[in-house]
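Here comes a specimen:
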Amino acid sequence: MTSGVVRRGRGPDLLDIGRKSRSIPPAIRRALNHRDGGCRFPGCTAHKYVDAHHIVHWADGGETKLDNLVTLCRHHHRAVHEGGFDVRMDSSQQPIFHDRNGQRIPEAPRSGFRGNTFALMAQNRRAGISVSAETCIPAWQGERMDGDMVVQGLYYLEN
């Protein structure tokens, strides 16, 4: 029995069903999950309950092939479709994300700290970083936080 997946050439073109269907066949889904390892939105660590997103939308002529797909968690999938965010693949087949203003969102580390907590505390102490019970207390007056403004501010602090 065949899955309907066309095997064309090598590399990213190996798994490709073209415009035959918008649905992702199991072989392409497995390859996509293996390649992406979870949501590819910068800084997101979600790796369960992720959706396959057509970068060039299927309705706009995009093909169902590995190099036109990226995995996104439900939150970021909605942000791309309805929130004005954009994703494109660069020449090395890495997703590049842009915010509502067209600013590129830089890639962020994908994993959290999984090492020795005491070593992390010692490293923070040497770097002059003090983390206490008061660290997460907000300094604003209770108004709703503008998440986009926070992320943009943090981005500009780094650059």
User: Anything to note?
Assistant: The chain is about 25% helix and 15% strand.
